Amino acid sequence: MNKVVTSIEAAVADIPDGASLMVGGFGLCGAPDSLIAALVRKGTRGLRTIANNVGVDGYGMGLMLEAGMIASHIGSYVGENLLLEQMMLESKIGLKLIPQGTLAESIRAGGAGIPAYFTPAGIGTVVAEGKEVREFNGRQYILEEALTADFAFVKAWKGDRHGNLVYRKTAQNFNPMMAAAAKITIAEVEELVELGALEPERIDTPGIYVERVVVSEHKEKRIERLKLRKEGR
Amino acid sequence: MSAALTDAQKRERIARRVAKELQDGYYVNLGIGIPTMVPNFVPAGLEVIIQSENGMLGVGPYPKEGEEDPDLINAGKETVTEIQGTSYFSSAESFAMIRGGHIDLSVLGAMEVDESGDLANWMVPGKMVKGMGGAMDLVASARRVIIAMEHTTKKGAHKILPKCTLPITGLKVVDTIITEMAVIRVTPRGFVLLEIAPDTTAEEVQKATGAKLHLEQPVRTMALD
């Protein structure tokens, strides 16, 4: 079994116009920069994306937005993307904002074969509009449906040819659930390691969830908000 | 007069007062803005663990120059550091912690709070759409929600109201409001004024508030050391 694809271009070659696509990352942290860049070069259009954010203006998924590739988006926070905020206020994009925990759990449920679940997040808000609300133990909960996708782009620290993945620090975020929730998951890894090199007890995403592994072309990672403390504290 | 304070001084005062609500062993989630400043004022001897909803328990201070790591950020996307005992996990695990009621205290900013404890902090129709992020999950499930915010808008408009006018983040979720002027508790009878800052009066606080403040006992002076 060898899921390694030798070029980023080849890894995204079969993604058709109109596909649904999950993209890992929390802001720019743990985002699959090389896969996004390859898709922008390919120019796929009409995409229905699912991701917590939409990159920032001029970087990451922000480039897909600028290129007019995204028809609709499901996410929880777009505060770093003036272009998207503007497009939404002008109704130029179908944008659905949902609570971050609901986004995470809907994707988890999608990968785990659970079609819907109840959550208290959003009771009494626009999020609950049109959805079933049921009471359990005196509290109200909203019925939320699972999310799945045709493709997922995930970013990992290390991966092997079976698709086993390990994430680094807070770069994990939405990546493991998305890997499980898409029909075709493409993992961009910083380091491709020999089979057996990853500690079996410490694998974050078992290879069964991953269809393709490709080595990242981005050697430098961007920091969205650099905050430093004074020396001596 | 509170009006004499700079914005930075107001924010620091609010963060200092919020820090006094912390207890040893608390697991706390801090929203973006003023809440992020709270760890600077944790009383000595208290061990408080900060949860960040992007997948981290045990958030440390900002890094020193040269120690910043793009893979290590808080929910405000700022670079942070680990402490001894830090753990990392997925967003699904992170919100399982939150939804499961394991967070002792959630501190958030607000645009509006009303006397039912309803909160609005994620959207201004036609003007600003940032998204709710994790706020709806946090307020629905944290054991206690404190709002840390400036008492009025920059233009002096009321933010503490009889009824929220902006899209709601959560219903009946706010326990306490801490501003540069006052500490206000949300009760079944409405807002109760608990403390006022040393440089203001109960009358001034009421004037800066859009809803009735009930005075149930002698109002204390806000502790700000």
Could you list some keywords that capture this structure?
heterodimer, A: 233 residues, alpha/beta, eight-stranded mixed β-sheet, 6 helices, 21% helix, B: 225 residues, eleven-stranded mixed β-sheet, three-stranded mixed β-sheet
Describe the protein:
- The complex is a heterodimer of chains A (233) and B (225).
- With 233 residues, chain A is of the alpha/beta class.
- Chain A contains 6 helices and 11 strands.
- Chain A has helices spanning 8-12, 33-42, 61-66, 82-89, 100-112, 175-181, and strands at residues 20-23, 47-50, 70-75, 94-97, 116-119, 133-136, 139-145, 149-159, 165-166, 182-192, 212-215.
- In chain A, the strands form 2 sheets. In chain A, strands 1, 2, 3, 4, 8, 9, 10 and 11 form an 8-stranded mixed sheet that branches.
- The termini of chain A are far apart.
- The model of chain A has no long low-confidence stretch (mean pLDDT 95).
- By secondary structure, chain B is of the alpha/beta class.
- Helices cover 17% and strands 26% of the residues of chain B.
- Chain B contains 5 helices and 16 strands.
- Chain B has helices at residues 7-19, 34-37, 91-99, 135-141, 202-207, and strands at residues 27-30, 49-52, 56-59, 82-88, 105-108, 112-114, 119-120, 123-124, 128-129, 145-148, 160-161, 176-178, 182-187, 190-196, 213-214, 220-221.
- In chain B, the strands form 3 sheets. In chain B, strands 1, 2, 3, 4, 5, 10, 12, 13, 14, 15 and 16 form an 11-stranded mixed sheet that branches.
- In chain B, a hairpin with a 3-residue loop joins strand 2 and strand 3.
- Chain B is globular and about 50 Å long.
- The mean pLDDT of chain B is 95.
